Amino acid sequence: xxxxxxxxxxxxxxxxxxxxxxxxxxxxxxxxxxxxxxxxxxxxxxxxxxxxxxxxxxxxxxxxxxxxxxxxxxxxxxxxxxxxxxxxxxxxxxxxxxxxxxxxxxxxxxxxxxxxxxxxxxxxxxxxxxxxxxxxxxxxxxxxxxxxxxxxxxxxxxxxxxxxxxxxxxxxxxxxxxxxxxxxxxxxxxxxxxxxxxxxxxxxxxxxxxxxxxxxxxxxxxxxxxxxxxxxxxxxxxxxxxxxxxxxxxxxxxxxxxxxxx
Length: 262
What we know:
Helix 4 packs across helix 5 and helix 5 (203-215) packs across helix 7 (237-259). A hairpin with a 2-residue loop joins strand 7 (119-123) and strand 8 (126-131). The chain is of the alpha/beta class. The protein has helices spanning 2-9, 62-71, 73-86, 137-163, 203-215, 224-233, 237-259; strands at 17-24, 29-36, 44-48, 51-56, 99-103, 106-114, 119-123, 126-131, 173-177, 184-186, 191-195. Helix content is 40%, strand content 25%. The protein has a 4-stranded mixed beta sheet, with helices on one face. Strands 5-6-8-7 form a 4-stranded mixed beta sheet, with helices on one face. Strands 9-11-10 form a 3-stranded mixed beta sheet, covered by helices on one side. It starts with a helix and ends with a helix.
């Protein structure tokens, strides 16, 4: 009872606080995400495909944080320029405006069409996105996810039969997920998960990840024996692994951008 009483009267653990601060660079103004994190031990400035982020310990003053930003403006501008130059993000796909849809390592020109149902079709001219007249952005994001899931299932269904001979069993099910760092996983019950961002990658990279996870049915590790199984089924796996290491951040960021509301 005493322990319960102490928990009830104990102060709540501090939570993460987020806001934005405007920063003037040499040629533009940007918004920096400012995060007060109880786990942070020092000021930290980082840049990724989503923009700039300043992480601050709870006891650090706003003045100290702004001074830290000002002192690191040149570094920040260089990092942002590098991200822009690497093309980490495809142009945003805006409802009923000209754009491009990433698929299988290419960018398909998009055209829009009114219709009774939401659907996406690919032809020689690119991608045709059909939406009801009153459909909004939520409908677009939903049909994009359904389209990429259908593409992935079609790809896996085409490749899988060739790799099943010699395996102890087939995966019991396939789940398609938006993964932050992994490209795939295999659960102990034989359920396979693949990152939906693989639909944006070149097909050979997606096929490599499929083979990688299938080989875990025989070797639940990354031992030399595991890589020998991969090598026997997919001799060019190193090229695809290197491709995903180089392009992975861009592919994952592009998918998040496509599936998230503006």
